[in-house]
Each structure stands twice: as C-alpha cells, then as structure tokens.
Amino acid sequence: MAEMKEQKTTKYLKFSFQFDKEKLLHDLSLIMDSKWIPHYNSTGYDGEWDVIPLYAIKGNETNIFALSNDNSEIVETPIMQDCGYFKEVIKSFKFPILSARILRLGIGAEIKPHRDHELGYENNNFRLHIPIITNDKVNFILDGVTLKMLPGECWYTNVNYEHSVSNNGISDRIHLVIDGERNTWSDDLFFSLAPAESFRLHVENDSAETIKRTIEELKHSNLPVAKQLIIGLQEKLDANNKA
Predict the structure, then answer these.
(1) CA distance 205 to 1
(2) Sheet holding 138-142, edge to edge
(3) Are strands 145-147 and 74-76 parallel, antiparallel or unpaired?
(4) Which helix (H) or strand (E) holds 177?
(5) What mean pLDDT value characterizes the chain?
(6) pLDDT tens digits for 102-124?
(7) Bridge partners of 74?
(8) Residue ranges of the domains in the chain?
(9) What residues have CB less than 8 Å from 151, skipping those under 6 apart?
(10) 170-199 pLDDT per residue, tens
(11) Are 177 and 103 in contact (CB under 8 A)?
(12) Which one of 69, 92, 135, 162 has the fewest beta carbons within 10 angstroms of its own beta carbon?
C-alpha cells in the first residue's frame, strides 16, 4: 500500500483578479490628510506604522483593532463617505467583513517577526492584502518566504505563521487590509486555488505564549476596546489551561 503524504497547510494565495490601481490611489488621496492612528503594538515595530479604519465596530473611526470578541455590528466609518471605489472593492467580497483598514508602513520602518492569534483560513477568519502603494525594497516575509505584492493585486496571508515586513525603499508602503469571516462564497474562492485539505487547523505548541504576548501588547493600548479584547483572550487562555 502506498504511503499517504500529509497535506501541507496553505500559507498564502495570490488571487487571479486585479483591482484598478488608479482608482485605489484616487480614494487614498481623499483620506491621506485624515488622522492616521499609530498601531497599538508599539513594541512590535520600529518607525512609523499607522492605520485608518474603514470598517469597524459600530463605525468607530478610532477603533483600529482587527477582530472583535463580541457580536457588535461592523459598519463603515465616516471616512468612507467619499471613498466610492474602496466601497466597491470591499463589497465585491461576499463574506462578512470583520474589519477593513488602510495600513501604512513608513519609509525605513519595520514590523518585527510575530504571529497573529488564530487568523488563518482554518480558523474560519482570514486576512486579505490589496497593495495601493509599494516599492521593490519592501520585504514581506511569511514563514521564510518573501512575498512580492504589487498594487491592485489581492493576496491571502496565513498570519498564524511568523511574518515580518520591512520598508527599505523611498516611498511609504500602503495596503488595504480586509479581515473576513469564512463562508461558502469564500470556500469556493479559496478552494479554486488550493485543495480544501490544505486549510487544516494549524496548532502551534506556543499558542498559549502567543495569547500571553497579545495580552501584554494590548495592555499598552489606550483604546477602550483593548480591555474587552484582553478579557476575551484571558478567558480563552484559562480555558486552554483547563483542557
């Protein structure tokens, strides 16, 4: 009998469709003078890394967090009022939107190697990147693989795996980042490029350490939602310890 090989987990995907680069730039120009909010994880990066929320809990334009631990409604923030193409792009995805943000990594800035907590397709939620501005000196490294994402493309990245980003170029790196909830529409999209078995549950031995590190990072945030997220993560950590 032939030995069955274990199916590897899909760590990233580049989708076949392309968004309009000029329209993305146009909508970005409408909000460039808005208030950019520094990323809460101040110990996790060097240089400038900041955010403009487009979809958030109750449309709160100060809420830069990616995921919520409750069932609060996720809606457009006021800044989306004039961003017709951003709306078109986001609504083209027929899955529940958990967050949508513009993330800017400044010239010379670096996001240190880290893992996000339960943010892979096998966890039933996932992250998409749509670059708007980038340069050839940006290095996005996911589990040892360098991904070159170009403006208008759409990529899935399994950020359960260690990843880092450095911007060694002469322009900012600005992405539209969408977090979504898995459904049958997204299954059809993902499974058209990779087998369903490759999105198996990814369990890391240091998952408890990842949760603890996330809690510590949140303690440095002054945003009201941070306390709520800490409570949810602590409950998950306690449940894992009892299991």
Answers:
(1) 32
(2) 45-46, 110-114, 163-167, 138-142, 145-147
(3) unpaired
(4) strand 173-181
(5) 87
(6) 999 999 999 999 998 888 999 99
(7) 57
(8) 12-202
(9) 21, 24, 131, 132, 133, 134
(10) 999 999 999 999 999 999 999 999 999 999
(11) yes
(12) 92
Amino acid at 155: W
Q: Give 220's contacts (C-beta < 8 A, 6+ positions apart).
A: 40, 41, 42, 43
Tokens matching residue 11 = 């760590």
Question: Do 42 and 220 form a contact (C-beta atoms < 8 A)?
Answer: yes
Sorting pLDDT into bands at 50, 70 and 90, what band is 226? Answer: low
Helix crossing, 84-91 with 21-31: angle to 10°? 120
SS3 134: coil
Tell me the mean pLDDT in the region 150-156: 98
pTM of the predicted structure, to 2 decimals: 0.81
From the candidate CATH numbers 2.60.40.10, 3.40.50.300, 2.60.120.330, 1.10.10.10, the one assigned to the domain spanning 12-202:
2.60.120.330
